[in-house]
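Example record for the data management plan.
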Amino acid sequence: QVQLVESGGGVVLSGGSLRLSCQASGSIFSISAMSWYRQRPGGQRELVALVRGGDSGPQYADSAKGRFTASRDHRKGTTTLEMNALNPDDTAVYFCNAHTIVPYGATWRENDYWGQGTQVTVSS
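Corresponding structural encoding:
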């Protein structure tokens, strides 16, 4: 089991910046990847950034490339999302996700865990 708590959301003017943080607790050793999703008003949850372990660099949605930077500290079970050049289209609830893989008999069991979400509002 993994528990996730996000922080850092708020209200910012267009062109501004925000930094979101997510702290995992519980079985953090089982986390293979951490990611950020968002859900805009009336929309579906969409991937913003994905950070896997090892030498893999972060992957970003096209809307985030060049503006957002995701990082992860595997040992601490944390991930951050630095968001710059924000615009009103970035207004959404942002969720932290942890994907876990644990041995399960002769195979593996994978699970996804979610934080409660943090509201980001960008005003024009």
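Summary line stored alongside the record: The first strand starts at residue 2 and ends at 7.
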